[in-house]
Amino acid sequence: MSYENESKEILKLVGGKENVLDLVHCATRLRFRLKDEKRALKKDIEELPYVLSVVKSGGQYQIVIGQEVSDYYKSIISHLDLNNSSEPVHEKTSFVNTIFEWISSGFSPLIPVMAGSGMILAFLTVLTSMNWLSAESSTYLILYAAGNAIFYFLPIFLGYTLSQKMKVDAFVGACIGAALLNPNFMGLIELEKVSFINIPVIAINYSSTVFPIFVAIFIYVYLYRFLSRYIYKDVQLFLVSMISLMVMVPLTAILFGPVSTTIGDYIGNGIMWLIEVLPVLAGFVLGGLYPFLVILGLHWGFTPFTLQNLSQYGGDPIEGTCVVAIFTLIGISLGTFLRSKKHSSLRRLAAPATITGFLSGIIEPVLYGIILRYRRTMIIMIVSGGISGIIARLLNVTCDAYVFHNLFSLPVYSPNISALLIISFSLILSTCLTYFFGYKKEDLNMIETKLKETLIPPINGNIISLQEVKDEVFASKKVGDGIAVIPTDNIIVAPIHGKITTIFPTLHAICMKTQNGTEFMIHIGINTSFLDGKYFDMKVQVGDEVEQGQMLCCIDKEQMEKEGYDTTTILLIPYQENIKDISFEQDLLEIIY
After folding, report:
1. What is the CA radius of gyration of the chain?
2. Where is pLDDT greater, at 478 or 317?
3. Does domain 4-85 have CATH number 3.40.50.720?
4. How far is CA 514 from CA 61, 192, 238, 401, in A?
């Protein structure tokens, strides 16, 4: 699916491509930075069937899509010319929003590779804990390198993404991070005295760090713009990058690195102190209220502290607590599925949301589809998540690798038995509470209004099921569902209003697309392709818009049958994601969405 129409629709509703300053995406959201957010039509965007919600937070206009967000992003970005855009318009935003936007812009492009790398480390944890692989083996070391590379060289990747976000030379930004990890620089750590032109330098191991490169790139952005403005253009090619590196690397080593590392340590230690001294409060807040940060798109603000804790302590109590919030939401979705009635809108929403949560840890469909619509489930989320979070802190559960919280990441939590117990507890508690107390009777009785299209037979005759067609491919329904007609006349008509998308060269088959985007085929006869267009008189062309009942083709049924051909005509609807059901009633074929 190209998402071409959807991308144009989104761009139009956010104020047009000229209103877009920047666009990135995370696991579920398109994160726009707009010149004027007032031009974006929030209500209209939220009414789009493929949009879960719209959130304005952290200086970004966030459109929540779900798991297909990367496909939407690729389609939308192809219509934008961001590299050649003018200087960004700086709107007045709060300091907190600026910080969250800065963090989000750096991490968002890295989330997929960080999540994948974390799962490699989780996989290795399983292999070593089961004694299937030695931690000293070359196989382990190679796989560990694959999983740990993004985290070890994080200053390089962040240097690139942050610079790219601010539209300065991203490779210079990456080089600033790389310089801090260069073997020559790392070798200075072991020396007692280190200086740069007689200025003392505190050599630090910057692998897996976050705060130093954030500060360094923040300063580099202003330096780059200053140099680009005043240096003669003919020598900018090498002089801007040369001066930037010669200034920023020493400054980072002398000042920005040690200071930001110290500040980061104080903040991280403060969070750890709060968790250790007030575990009940910390557990309730992280377990019960974390989903509200997800709703606002602010949950990535924890990432720097998570990575710092993993590097410094080998385990992170923040994500070790937040995991129960994720499984609480999965439990609410599961309880909704079990409690809701068949064919209800709740069940249709809860089924895929539960599977998505279990397998990927993406819980936005639950938040926007269930929690924000039904207040009882929000109370259950806070109570169940809060209680589970308190227990998680009392049991001192930590997350020992950067992962998305899902079934596959369970091995990375420790103590493992305690973690599994509390995760199971949060899942079971929220499922039970939702099943028994989550919904009012009228909520459960709410049946989704069925969107449907009705197709008439493509030709007059006796209607039979596909199983009766004397062709194994059609009869087995391997390629789709539909009906067949043993014709009594020679006129093929359009089953529904739509567009002709394909006419086979042999004229024996016509493909159409409905207004809802559903594709179907009219296949005239069995093996009639061998006639090579003989006895077919096509009345339409590819691209024609036709009305239901309009003549498409005339055939010579009698001559076909004289030559031994079966003229059974099939109306075939290939299996498509947007179709919920296909039914046949009173000579009509109904497609239900």
Report:
1. 30
2. 317
3. no
4. 33, 75, 57, 48
The residue that leads in pLDDT, 552 or 443, is 552
- The Cα 574–Cα 561 span in angstroms is 27
Structure-token match 């046949």, residue found: 584
| Cα angle for residues 557, 558, 561 (degrees, 5° grid) | 85
> In residues, how long is the chain?
593
Distance CA 318, CA 309 (A): 9
Secondary element (H or E) of residue 23: strand 20-25
List Cβ neighbours of 354 (8 Å cut-off, separation of 6 or more): 330, 333, 334, 337
Q: Which of 25, 405, 508, 523 is catalytic?
A: 523
pLDDT band at 586 (very low <50, low <70, confident <90, very high): low
Residue 512: CB atoms within 10 A of its CB come to: 24
d(CA 366, CA 378): 11
**Which tokens hold the place of 571?**
């109306």
Alpha-carbon span 74 to 592, nearest angstrom:
30
452-592 belongs to CATH 2.70.70.10: yes
Q: Please, where in the chain does CATH 2.70.70.10 lie?
A: 452-592
What pTM was estimated for this model as a whole? 0.56
- What is the location of CATH 3.30.1360.60 in the chain? 4-85
Per-residue pLDDT reduced to its tens digit, 512-548: 988 777 889 999 999 898 899 999 999 999 999 999 8
> Could you confirm whether 523 is annotated as catalytic?
yes
Q: In this predicted model, what pLDDT tens digit does every residue of 128-169 receive, in sequence order?
A: 878 898 988 999 999 999 988 988 898 999 999 999 888 899
Q: Which of 319, 353, 316 is nearest to 333 (CA)?
A: 353
